[in-house]
Amino acid sequence: MNERQHQVTQDSRRDPRIGMGETVTITFDAGAIVGPGQNISATGVFFTAAASIPVTVRIAGVETAVPGELVRVESMGDGRVGIAVRFVAPNPTLLA
Prior knowledge:
By secondary structure, the chain is mainly beta. 0% of the residues lie in helices and 47% in strands.
């Protein structure tokens, strides 16, 4: 992985967060996602899924793809979204 400056974010999360600038790519392995609808409006729909949504994560400069599951997508404004992925197993080698 390219050398980078690590910046730990202080918060109450289980594991510390480290700033990074590398490009991250996720590939959705799930195909179709089906679940019961919760509510609908003229501008969107909210539904739940009974299972995790598997993805594969690739980080620029890291040779190995890492399996994960999608845990959150949120609007960041200006047409951007934030995407959170939990690794299937902890992977401290990505922090090196």
